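Hey,
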Amino acid sequence: GDRHKFVADRLYHKLLPPREMASVSASQLSLFERGGLGAAGGIVTTFFTHPFDVVRVQMQVGKFSGTIDATTTIARRGGLHELYAGISAAWLRQITYGSGRLGIYSYLLDFDRRLRASRADSSSPSFVLKLMMGITSGSVGAAMGTPAELALVRMGADSNIADPAQRRNYQHSLDCIVRVAREEGVAALWRGATPTILRAAALSGTLLSITSEAKAAISQRTGFAPTSTLNMFFSALVASFAANCVANPFDVVKSRIQQASDPLLYTSMMDCARKSIAEEGFAVLWRGFTPAFVKLAPYSIISLTLLEKFTALYTGGGAGAL
């Protein structure tokens, strides 16, 4: 009866290690819950990193002598408020792209673990499999978040238009999306979708797979817990540099296509890349690398660490997401 149930429960909890108990709880998380945790971490992170996004976009679509020149010029033009232009679009981007990217990757990683456990397989997924999970989650998330990405680029670059009469002066992200749909057609919201998805696939595949691999390797060599702040800091830092190298050319092309007021200016992403290289040299594809990395590194460190902490807090244990 009840006594036997009590004894069985005591034996179960005594025999089952704490980490396994946490993973049982984490495995109950739905894709929606994992996406929500990813979005929450991303939204908090934007308060620290959004100014770097504004500088990055303006450098990619405008002409500045460097990162410091771009930052000071933007700040002089509109003060601190200008460096946070389009932050509502950044929040919307986290709700769509961020939730899809991190939620799907976390879900796929956990699904693979549960599948292996059902076969009594204690091995971890390979780096290539993690890379494919990151590419998949980044692609799906980017397809969901392209309208928010377009709004982020438009609002972040608006003050860079020299003639005030030509500026779009969007009030917030939803105003931008509604106006683009009304003035340019609904299809315009997915302008630049191809480079956006390719960028997200390259960035997410590299960033998430290397972070997952690095934190396990660091844990084995140093004894740091896989979800510890110090481990996440070094893992995400290394992954951010690699991801930025791979994704920056797609980012430049994406920003230029989405910022163009004339939809016929570029016929494709290859046309945009070709014209940009012809006019400004091959290095133009890595323009804005410094602010992009300075933004991506703290963004990845903070958002991925928060994702781990939020997941552990939400599940009531030490379970991780990555």
